[in-house]
Design a protein that fits this description.
Helix content is 72%, strand content 4%. It contains 18 helices and 4 strands. The longest helix is centred in the N-terminal third of the chain and has 33 residues. The structure holds zinc ion. The site of zinc ion (ZN) has 4 residues, from helix 9 and helix 14.
Length: 420
């Protein structure tokens, strides 16, 4: 066996083992606390809601374990199993080597991966989410969504693939710097186009009509010296009962988007506090920090790809006897995550720190008690478990565990407000 094949398979198996071990811990921990509502939540969450959240968390972990194993098998089949080489040879059978053939090779491999993942998407939507009462996607909407997503993936992914392959072929030894610059430009373009052209393909966005709420929001924005172009309500309820709120766009073009499901479950003061939290991510410069770190990581990725694409062992070790630019890209995208997962807990910890900071900001500019109430309502409505395994949560979660987060928020409620 090629030494790099062995290194790759070991890294992949190590990742798999860690994920399954953490999932098992999560299942055990949630199950052990299924009958006990954490102190501080007992008045807001009923025993039935608490055990439903536990069952939902456990059911999702069980599917997650099966999917993790399945995904690893797909990656192995495509790499060391020879799938990428096979599909490359198939394309070469009717097409001259070049940018177009390379693009088609990439498209065919991603189409196979999408099809391979489809049973899980269907299961999650129509079995898992359905069982817990969250699914509102009709089969028609689901098929329409899939077709639109595939067309979009084909157009955008195909364009990016062709562009990167062209740069690899034409820009010389330091092509990866040019490739990275093109990738950054593409990311900016998508950020601009997403709220305007892409999101409306999937959902309806209508201006917020509730005048009293709009005034409350405008007052908050003015208080925080923040500019947003418009406030929209999105018909999230067409697909799911889960609620959310987010900002999109950049500069003065920022838009605020509320899921209609969120507006029906929270009161005006609670909505204001949730918005103050989201706004904090801008005011505290979390968004630019994430962009800079993301740009630095993708530069490192392109540099690594530039080097790996010159190494014979990278191809030979991953089941591709005849190197090509398209195979280099595919192997990079499929094999490198087997090694880089090791940094994901650091990114999760960084994100949790930002969440605490944003909560503190919201407590200052809106109302800490309302934010705590809003979060408890959202935990309840989304059946988020209140008792995650500490290690699982530290490794995976971008948001702090509910009990720690609510405890901190309650400590931020000023003593005079608490007394009133
Ligand atoms: Zn946040």
């Amino acid at each position: 066996m090629h030494p790099f094949t062995l290194a790759f398979v070991l890294a992949l198996v190590a990742h798999l083992a860690v994920q399954i071990w953490l999932s098992q811990r999560q299942i055990t921990h949630v199950l052990a606390h299924r009958g006990t509502i954490p102190a501080g939540f007992a008045s807001a969450v009923s025993a039935a809601e608490h055990s439903k959240a536990a069952d939902y968390a456990i059911a999702r972990q069980r599917v997650g374990i099966v999917e993790t194993v399945y995904d690893a098998i797909v990656v192995l089949a495509l790499t060391v199993g020879g799938g990428i080489a096979l599909l490359g040879a198939w394309v070469a059978g009717f097409m001259q080597p070049g940018i177009l053939a390379g693009t088609l090779h990439l498209v065919v491999v991603f189409a196979c991966m999408t099809l391979a993942g489809l049973p899980f998407t269907i299961y999650r939507t129509f079995v898992l989410e359905q069982r817990f009462g969250f699914n509102r996607t009709s089969p028609g909407t689901f098929v329409g969504d899939q077709l639109k997503a595939w067309a979009l993936g084909l157009a955008l992914g195909g364009a990016v693939a062709a562009c990167v392959l062209w740069i690899m072929a034409e820009a010389g030894a330091s092509w990866w710097i040019v490739g990275w610059a093109a990738w950054m430009a593409f990311s900016l373009l998508v950020t601009w186009a997403w709220p305007r052209l892409i999101a409306p393909l999937f959902n309806k966005f209508s201006p917020l009509e509730d005048q009293a709420l709009r005034e409350r929001i405008d007052a908050l924005l003015a208080r925080c010296d923040f500019h947003a172009k418009a406030v929209y309500v999105m018909d999230g309820s067409r697909r799911s009962a889960h609620g959310n709120a987010y900002f999109t766009g950049f500069g003065r073009e920022k838009r605020i988007v509320f899921f209609d499901t969120l507006l029906t479950s929270l009161g005006p003061v609670q909505i204001e506090s949730v918005l103050a939290h989201e706004l904090a991510h801008f005011k505290l410069r979390h968004i630019p920090q994430r962009l800079v770190v993301g740009a630095a990581m993708s530069l490192a990725g392109f540099a690594l790809l530039g080097w790996l694409s010159q190494q014979q062992w990278f191809f030979a070790g991953l089941g591709v006897p005849a190197p090509s630019d398209a195979a280099a890209l595919l192997l990079f995208l499929l094999a490198v995550p087997a090694f880089t997962w090791i940094i994901s807990p650091l990114l999760a910890a960084w994100s949790r720190r930002h969440e605490y900071e944003a909560d503190a900001f919201a407590a200052q500019h809106a109302d800490a008690r309302s934010l705590a109430e809003a979060l408890v309502t959202l935990y309840k409505d989304n059946a988020t478990t209140l008792t995650p395994d500490p290690l699982y949560s530290a490794f995976h979660d971008s948001h702090p565990p509910p009990t720690a987060r609510i405890e901190r928020l309650r400590a931020l409620v000023s003593p005079s407000a608490a007394a009133s």
